[in-house]
Write a structure and sequence with these properties.
Mean pLDDT: 87
Number of domains: 2
Distance between the termini: 87 Å
Radius of gyration: 25 Å
Pfam families: GET4
Order of helices and strands: HHHHHHHHHHHEEHHHHH
InterPro entries: GET4, TPR-like_helical_dom_sf
Shape: elongated
Helix content: 55-70%
Strand content: under 5%
Strand order of the largest sheet: 1-2
Family: Belongs to the GET4 family.
Largest sheet: 2 strands, antiparallel
Low-confidence stretches: 335-351
Oligomer: single chain
Length: 351
Amino acid sequence: MPPRSTKPPSVESLLPPILSLLPNAYSAHQKCLTTTARLVHANHHDIAIPILFATAKELLKLGEGGSGSELGVKMVGIMSESDVQVDEKSRASITQLLALTPSSGPWRKKLADAAIKWTQANGDCPTGDPNLHQYIGELYYKDRAFVAAEPHLLSSGKRDAAITLAEMMFEWSEKGKLDPGPYAIRGTLPFLAQSPPSILPALTFLSHLLSLLSSSSSPFHKNFITTLPSQTSFSISEVHLTTSPTLNFCQLALVTVQRAPAQGVSGVTARGMDGGMGREWDALCGRYTRMSGASGVLGQREVQEVLQQIATEIFLTPPPRAQGGNDMLQNLMGSLFGGGGGGGGGAIGAR
């Protein structure tokens, strides 16, 4: 008797028995895990991934956030193990699940964090896929989870993400009722502190925020005093002076960083005989820190550390002897302005 032929596994043969168990979420979840574990063991990652995606999607539609997101995280892990590259198709499988994952609870964050980690390993950008960062940031922003949205919008670096970041900071400052300076710092310094500085998103963010603040619908529009030429031909054409020293500083910092030494120039050459642009940067920071006051946001330790980082890495000035912590930007995003998961302004920083 000839041996019985065994059909190779396929999505078409394995997925229907799993979905037929619904709406019994527990049974479908367990059968999906068992089936896909066997597939992975047999090196059929390409079949396990769509089965996990389809089952997770159906569970999330039923409101099973925990079970659905767990399968989504499992899917992302297998995508990483099997070196699935970041493209429109693979990214879409993540965004579809994220859109269905409930905003309450830890599930969306777990799936988002796993997805970003996958794109860091399998994409072109070491900080994670810019498009996925933008999508996650906009998702959190719509839920008014401003603290959660902020790092993703900053990490994206895309123009639209910078515009969304400006709109979020405008809302966070209660549309200009609060001093917008600390909010402007949050959206400007992280871009300027990158090496090389990310000028386009910083410019986009600041220009859009200024436009929102100067509109008649914002109470802050009365605090615009005058405009001055920026003396740069490749950025903002004029600086809008306001009653907020910190907002003024952000604009002048953007202009000054664009005049920093080119990459590859030695520190000795950059400093020259008179200190070069590094001297101007130090003078700018010192002047506006004093104007902001001892309790002002520019005087806070986390901001000062980032300003010093820019001085050292962008303007090539000698670092101070007592160097701060290595994770300066993380300190800025964390302890400087305090936490809170909602959209309220809260204690975001002193004026």
